[in-house]
Design goal:
heterodimer; A: mainly beta; six-stranded mixed sheet; five-stranded antiparallel sheet; B: mainly beta; seven-stranded mixed sheet
Amino acid sequence: GQQVMQIPQYQHVQEGEDFTTYCNSSTTLSNIQWYKQRPGGHPVFLIQLVKSGEVKKQKRLTFQFGEAKKNSSLHITATQTTDVGTYFCAGLPNAGNNRKLIWGLGTSLAVNP
Amino acid sequence: EPEVTQTPSHQVTQMGQEVILRCVPISNHLYFYWYRQILGQKVEFLVSFYNNEISEKSEIFDDQFSVERPDGSNFTLKIRSTKLEDSAMYFCASRGPAREKLFFGSGTQLSVL
C-alpha cells in the first residue's frame, strides 16, 4: 500500500544546532503537508507544498518538495526550545480522487537548553 | 482563527460500554475526519466524511465504529462496545472545499478500563 516514511524517528539537539527531518513517499504526491504537534497538544498545520522542487521558508524553518514529488524535508536553523515537538509530514497521493492524507510516523525533536 | 472543538476532553469507560465522542467542526468546512493517536505515536486515520456520508475508512474503522452528523453542526464518533485497545487520543479534524490544511481539535483522551 501507499506509505510515507519519515526519518529520523527521534532527534536530540543542543539549542542553536540545526535539525532536519525527511519524508519519502512510495508514490508520487499531489501535495505534501507538514504539521507540528507540541507535547500534549494536537497537530497544527505548518505548510503545504504543491509544486515540484518547491522551497518555502517560515522564519527559521525551510521546507522542500523534491523534483519527483516523492520526498520532502523540513530544516530548522538554530533550534530553540520552542521548537520541541513532533513534526509530521502528510502526503496526498497523486492517483485518483483520494482525499486521504498518508501520514508519516513523525520525528520527535528534543532541544537541550 | 476558527477552531474545531471536541468534547469531552477526557472520557473514561468500562470495556464493553458505548462511548460517543463529539466534535464541532469549523462552520463552513465540508470535509470531516476522525484520527486517533496512541500515546504520542503516529496519527492514524479512521474515517473521512463528506456530503453526509463516509467517503473513506481505514481497517481500524470496523463495525464497532460509526459516525454521524446529526444536526448540521456536530460530528460524532460512536464506539459501540469499547475494547482496551481503543484507549487513545481521538482527534477530529475538518477542512474546507479545496485540498487545503486540516484543522484539528484538541482531542478526546479515551481510557478504556
